[in-house]
Amino acid sequence: MADVPAAMxxxxxxxxxxxxxxxxxxxxxxxxxxxxGSLWHFQDPSVAPHVEQCxxxxxxxxxxxxxxxxxxxxxxVASDSGAVEMWQLSEEGESFQALWYSYGHxxxxxxxxxxPDYNTAVSxxxxxxxxxxxxxxxxxxxxxxxxxxxxxxxSCNPQDKxxxxxxxxxxxxxxxxxxxxxxxxxxxxxxxxxxxxxxTWSVNRQTDVTIGCETGEVMMLELRDQSQPVHRxxxxxxxxxxxxxCPQEPSWLATVSDDCDVVVTSLQSDPNIxxxxxxxxxxxxxxxxxxxxxxxxxxxxxxxxxxxKLSGFDGPNPTQQxxxxxxxxxxxxxxxxx
Length: 338
Description:
Low-confidence stretches: 313-338
Mean pLDDT: 89
Structural class: mainly beta
Helix content: under 10%
Distance between the termini: 39 Å
Oligomer: single chain
Number of helices: 0
Shape: globular
Radius of gyration: 19 Å
Largest sheet: 6 strands, antiparallel
């Protein structure tokens, strides 16, 4: 514990739940002209982000923009320096060790995703490029150039190691096959109403893709028929930053946004907001479900971590249930925009 940073970095960017329920978190701080960052492990999620109660922590040379777990003890990081890094958490969960890093992007690496074979990762950055990484050789096998703006999000298909999604500031969402040099297809052409900022696969259907936009809107597309969204609603008033489907209740989608809200929407039929929290006082950047699925963790630029307890999966708590106004795209019971 001697190497643990003395204080938590201000901007909490991302958190991930391990299979035992503990949390790994990445943070960043602007110091002068430079971003610094840190990685943290909390065996007891309820004590995050209190430094004195963390299990492990380490200072990094650049801010953490994104991280994904390869397994419970290995993680891959996208950093503000443009580097992709692999870290090892000790078996006891009490220390981090840097395994390797590579400056694959010419500017900030904003996003990283791991393929289901755990041998490949895909990163995207502000240089508008996508990198395919071989995690065994530690080399970028391929650079893909189709976007003309910052790549905000990458999502590997959970079943097919060759297929992944990307979305970028150029307003496009693409589906890729790593065996090809060009994008397999453009998603939601003429349907996406704003810049797509996050994208993910639906948990229970490989043919469904969910996209969050800078307008606060979220939509679900059926890949076989993209003429109109399966669902379209606006749970937020500002940019949607991350999407997370509940592992135990695949119809529940958690979204976090620059409007400081954490929202869970049920997609069992028409979109219906079953939980909403306005506890954060600054942009919410990270969200992760606990393995059991009944607790949701969120973090943001207010240096806060909140643990949201949801009702059982037999149905939402009526006191938390709110309706989505699908005609004008605004959710009921909204708080004023910040």
